[in-house]
Every structure is written in structure tokens, then in C-alpha cells.
């Protein structure tokens, strides 16, 4: 197995236990770069299906079929999986508030695809609707929370309109 195909053991029998982890290059606002390993299933030599929405890489969500560029460590969407990724960064928010929020997200049709100390990654079927997602987000405190759609806008802030 090549370096870029590290197999992740998710340790959860409710999901497939082995994913191909693709390193995708992310860049911070100050220009620093790092690789985020995104869980996928291999379809062909360069084509993969995203299994879990990423926390930092923009433009893709769970269910998307992507073409992977191993050199640039980028993904080009071939087919959208009809899911919306939401990345929520939080600081100073009590754990019980975040836990309650995640329960509400599941109740409106979403799922939690990842979590770090200050990050929650959610995936919603696009049929949930943007108003429902935004109403859910409005339940979080305004202070200490920044959130954004992971696959709704391009790098210039223009809507991708794939859901139309």
C-alpha cells in the first residue's frame, strides 16, 4: 500500500471499518499548509468516494465522488453526493452545550462526521434544506463559535449551486 493510502481503522462497527485515507492539502489564512487525511473508498486508480466530510478541506462532503491529484494533494468533484458539510469551530463553549447541539443536529437529519476539542464536523442531506441547517446553527452561542459550509461556496465566496 502506498503512503497516500494509509488505511484508517475507525473502530466503529456501525460504519465500514477500513477507509483509504487521502491526504488533502489545506492552507490556513496565514499561508501555512498541512495535510488533512480524509476517509474515502477507492473506486478506481484515482477516483474515490468521500465517506466522512472533512473538517478543514473545503469543497467536498461525504458521498461525493472525487478525482484525486496525488501530486497537488487536491480533490476535484466528479459527482456530488447530495450532502452538505458544515464545519463548526468553537472555543469556550461548555461540553454539554456542544453535546446537546449534536443531538439536535441528528434530530434534523444530520450526522456527526468528526470532532476535535474545538471542532465539530456535520453532514446533512441537502434535502434537509439550508433554512433548517441555519436555524440549527442559530441555537449555538454567538460568542466563541465560527461555522461555515464546507462545500457550498467556492474560494471567492460564490455559491457553487450544485444543489440546484
Overview in brief:
13% of the residues lie in helices and 40% in strands.
Q: How would you sum up this structure, described in words?
A:
The chain is mainly β and about 160 residues long. It has 2 domains: about 5-80, no CATH class; about 85-150, ACT domain (Alpha-Beta Plaits). Helix content is about 15%, strand content about 40%. The protein contains 2 helices and 10 strands, in the order βββββββαββαβ. The chain has helices at about 95-105, 130-135; strands at about 5-10, 20-25, 35-40, 45-50, 65-70, 75-80, 85-90, 110-115, 120-125, 145-150. Strands 1-2-3-4-5-6 form a 6-stranded antiparallel sheet, with no helix packed on it. A 4-stranded antiparallel sheet has the order 8-9-7-10, with helices on one face. The chain is globular, with a radius of gyration of 16 Å. About 30% of the residues are buried.
Q: What is the helix/strand order? A: EEEEEEEHEEHE
- What overall geometry do the principal axes of the alpha carbons give? globular
- Main-sheet strand order equals 1-2-3-4-5-6
Low-confidence segments, ≥5 residues, pLDDT <50?
Answer: 1-16
Number of strands: 10
| Tally of individual helices | 2
* Rg for CA atoms: 16 Å
Please indicate the percent range of residues in DSSP E strands (runs of 2 or more).
35-45%
Q: Mean pLDDT, nearest integer?
A: 90
Span from first to last CA? 39 Å
Oligomer: single chain
How many domains, as an integer? 2
Largest sheet: 6 strands, antiparallel
Indicate the structural class: mainly beta
